[in-house]
Amino acid sequence: MKRRLIIILSLLVAAIVGGSYVGDRMLKSKGHPGLRKFLHQWWVNYPASFAVEPEVVELKVDQTDLDALENVVHAARDRGVIMREGNDYVPAEFTAGGNTFKVKVRIKGKMADHVKGDKWSFRVQARKDNGFKGMQRFSLQHPGTRNYLCDWFYHRLMKGEGIIALRYGFVRLHFNGEDLGIYAYEEHFGPELLANNDRLKGPLFRFDPGLFWQHRLNMIEKVRYNEPFAAYQAAELDAFGSGDMEKDTVQRRYFEEAVALMDAFRRGVLPAAQVFDADKIARRHAILDLVGGHHSMDWSDVKFYYDPLLKRIEPVAYESFSAFPIRSLAGSNRYVGGFKQSMDLHDAYFNDTVVFAAYVHHLERVSRPEFLDSAFTVLAPALDSASAMIYREFPYKELDRDIYRHNQMIIRRMLDVPKGFHAYAAPATDSLRLTIVPIEGLPIEVLGAVAADGRVLPMAKRTIVPCRPPGSVGTPMEARIPLDDRWRSSPPQKVELRYRVLGATTEKTLEVFPYAYLDSVSTPAFAPPSGYDVRTVAWLVVDEGARTIVVKPGAHIVSEDVYIPAGYSVRAVAPLRIDLVKGARIVSRSPMHWKGLEDSPITLLSSDQGGGGLLLVSTGGSSVFEHVRIEGFGPTASTVPSIVLQEAPSQWVRCALGEVQARDLMQVVRGAVTLTDCRFTGGADQLKLAYTNASLEKVELRGAADDALLVKGGAARISEAVVYAASGDALAVDEAATVTVDRSTLEATKDAIEVSEGATLVVEGGRITSAKGSAIEVKQLHARHGPSTVTLKGAVVEANDPPKIGKGNKVTINGGAPMGSTVP
Q1: Where a domain ends, among 511, 535, 559?
Q2: pLDDT of res. 61
Q3: Which helix (H) or strand (E) holds 99?
Q4: How many domains in the chain?
Q5: Is 530 in the same domain as 506?
């Protein structure tokens, strides 16, 4: 008997232990902390639920209408989604607080979780003279569809932030006499929502999700094909209460205004900050980061209100899908420095610097521990009451405060970037020229360089480093800092930049790499093959004592690359003719001094049209070319310009440069170049100046197959120049370049001048002519560089089309505002 008892007890203990283990694993698989916590919650929370008695509401429908609702439920369970077709309102009676009134009711929701078991979700609409807790339109649904207490907390946070928030709470529902237990009530969208949030009457609207949900149904049914109709860019705007709006001409007009603003935003005509209330957009997303509600950032779920007084669109707090730990921010990996129509809604939001700066400001605020401390203190009585109502049926569904604390910590960590970007600087005199490579997922504002005395020398233009796309290498960008006399007389031992996350209060400092960055615009660092010795080149004379390399006069056919190392001076005089064939190049890291004669210029050509070109790279000194003639090297190496000067200062005097129209002629990168009495003929782009200081005097550029003169960054002074018959632009200026042009003729088939990306152009005198386009086109305001500035003084302008001036720029043509078209 005793032995049998021991066996029974042992089996019982084993069963309890085994059952506990299985139960613990099952709970953890569903995201619960485990059995011990579960039992504690039942032991503590269930008794606490009796401190508050939930309000009881009743909903009654007759049998015919119940059958109609059941048909919708069965169809939704079969398909996995609730489709709007056939889900019509049916008449019902609603009772609350002893007051019974007639309502309309239908099944509510999109996904099948709203019709699980007996706790169906209902959309209820009362007549205008009736309602529940001030709501004419509201939903009754399983609390789990809004994650129990999480949306309760979310809406109260949003209300505290001044965001339009829904009334949300808990009741006990009796449906046709059956007690269905605890339900969440949630306000729907109508005038009473606006009144409860102290807003003027105005349109409430959304992107119509109908076509998007057709796409979701196709996914559930495993039907895969290209569905352009389901995109954010294809969605029309849908007003809540559109039936009432048809009778109200004022509200219809307001909705038309909202549609026009949203359309301008989606097309890139207006930035986010001119369409939306930027501060409220920022606050909403900061709270979504705090509560871990990133799943609610689906464009098809976002709701809006149009403020008819301020003419701005506000967000409306809707379901948060919250209480999840975050690993990134709502604004992470979105800012690229400009708008594209292909962007989704939130990418477009966060590419507005005003919105992003406000967002980071609010992230800093809501991530402070005292923010949650204050919220929990203020909401404590109401939270205790709401929790008690939930605990009656769901005692294990506590509000997990640790998740919110965790998210605060992640926000603080992500704003505290260990390094904002990589920066490279070449030696500088008047300006510090930087190449910046993005490495972060948040935009970084570069404030300036730290001087030896602690001052911060500001950037030449506002500089915001975009995000590095996940899985990609950051795209380099150029920036410039003007240096003053105090810096030049007493430079710091190392160059440091001051920066901050865009909108943040905390500033940081990083050290700049003290060498130049060779980016995709630049020439690769061409290196000779192992064992190469320039002394073996028969037509060169190397003098190690004098550190000179002399090119022998005469005619030379060169069929292999020639590499000239650093530390020499390469000299040549007439008569000299060098024929580069079979792809051969001359690559020099030493400066060249080549001097021909007016009637006998030094000539470089390619008889087989396969020449690689002339490349000077980091020469360490200035080159001089006088009476040099480039007859062209042909299209074989068309991806590389015929002449490349990278960090290789040079002077060109009375030179003639030509090339076939399939190949660029000359490119100068991060250097200084002076051209006097020179002539360019042919070529695709004739002269590219990238981040260079340039002076052009009496230079002639004829017959460019594309653009004649391009200035990217840097500065250029152009005097008495002539550009004839450029098929593209006569002059293109971008990347914050500064260009002055005087007494010059600029003639092009298309637009004569194009200016963009914060560039500055001053043209004095001369003539600007376009055969088929505009005399000048100024591209739209560029978020990274700011507005472009163009001043034309006393210039004769002849063009087929009027000037094209993008919004936000500063343009003056001959003393007045341009009389041409304004483009977005």
Answers
A1: 511
A2: 97
A3: strand 99-107
A4: 3
A5: no
Say whether both 531 and 661 belong to one domain. yes
The residue type at 685: D
Residue 807 CA: distances (Å) to CA of 352, 779, 786, 804, 811: 15, 8, 11, 10, 10
Structure tokens at 696: 């052009």
- The domain boundary, picked from 484, 511, 538, lies at 511
Q: Is 196 buried (19+), middle (13-18) or exposed (0-12) by CB count in 10 A?
A: middle
Same domain? For 715 and 816 the reply is: yes
pLDDT, tens digit, 9 for 90 and up, residues 716-764: 999 999 999 999 999 999 989 999 999 999 999 889 999 999 999 999 9
Query: What is the model's pLDDT at position 216?
Result: 66
Q: pLDDT for 200-220, tens place per residue?
A: 999 999 998 877 767 666 676
Q: Is 619 helix (H, G, I), strand (E, B) or coil?
A: coil
Token output for 823? 């483009």
Q: What is the pLDDT of residue 622?
A: 96
Question: Do 537 and 572 belong to one domain?
Answer: yes
Residue ranges in the chain modelled with pLDDT below 70: 1, 10-11, 13-50, 213, 215-218, 220-221, 427-429, 518-527, 638, 782-784, 817-824
Domain that holds residue 500: 421-511
- Torsional sign, CA 292, 298, 303, 307: positive
Whether 542 and 665 map to the same domain: the answer is yes
Q: What per-residue confidence (pLDDT) applies to 119?
A: 92
The per-residue pLDDT for 523 is 42
With b for 16 or more beta-carbon neighbours within 10 A and e for fewer, the 646-679 pattern comes to bbbbbbbebbbbbbbeebbbbbbbbbbbbbbebb
DSSP-assigned beta bridge partners for residue 739? 716, 761
490/548 same-domain check: no
Residues 770 and 776: their CA atoms lie apart, in Å, by 9
